[in-house]
């Protein structure tokens, strides 16, 4: 029987509201030693995700102010998500295909967990799937000119 994400996910997920500033998001990431925060609206529905890379490339590099709302730099369209009943191998394949290192686990529009590539690698049962996903995720891209 395959393992479900609900058995592997981190359920204590820090989130940020879409109206909070990127400075607040960055401070939360720093304090919690995490690289991504699911973004929620006032109803608690997940509307996007913001990563440390988003903050660097979409705000700092563009000269945006620290008071810029998260909603202006987050990834909002087609945020890749998993479900608690999703098979771990399916999740690893999805992460590999989409070249992502973190997968929000959503149920009824609410964020209930997060699975990182490292979570898959820690469990020896899924080490091969994690390695394959990492290989696909880490495929280098050429610098843009």
Automatic annotation (TrEMBL):
Q: Does the keyword Signal apply?
A: no
- CDD domains hit by this protein: CBS_pair_HRP1_like (cd04622)
Keywords (alphabetical) are: CBS domain
Quick one: signal sequence residues?
none
Q: Does the keyword Protease apply?
A: no
Pfam families attached to this UniProt entry: CBS
The segment(s) forming the CBS domain are: 9-66, 74-131
Q: Which InterPro entries does its entry note?
A: CBS_dom, CBS_dom_sf, Diverse_CBS-Domain
Report the superkingdom from the record. Bacteria
Q: Report the protein name in the record.
A: CBS domain-containing protein
């Amino acid at each position: 029987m395959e393992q479900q994400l609900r058995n592997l996910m981190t359920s204590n997920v820090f989130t940020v509201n879409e109206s909070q500033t990127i400075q607040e998001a960055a401070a939360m990431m720093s304090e919690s030693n995490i690289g991504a925060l699911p973004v929620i609206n006032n109803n608690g529905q997940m509307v996007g995700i913001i990563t440390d890379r988003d903050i660097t490339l979409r705000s700092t590099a563009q000269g945006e102010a620290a008071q810029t709302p998260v909603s202006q730099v987050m990834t909002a369209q087609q945020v890749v998500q998993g479900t608690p009943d999703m098979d771990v191998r399916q999740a690893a394949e999805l992460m590999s295909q989409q070249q992502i290192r973190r997968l929000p686990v959503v149920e009824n529009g609410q964020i209930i967990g997060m699975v990182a590539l490292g979570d898959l690698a820690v469990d020896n049962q899924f080490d091969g799937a994690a390695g394959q996903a990492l290989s696909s995720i880490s495929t280098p891209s050429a610098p843009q000119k």
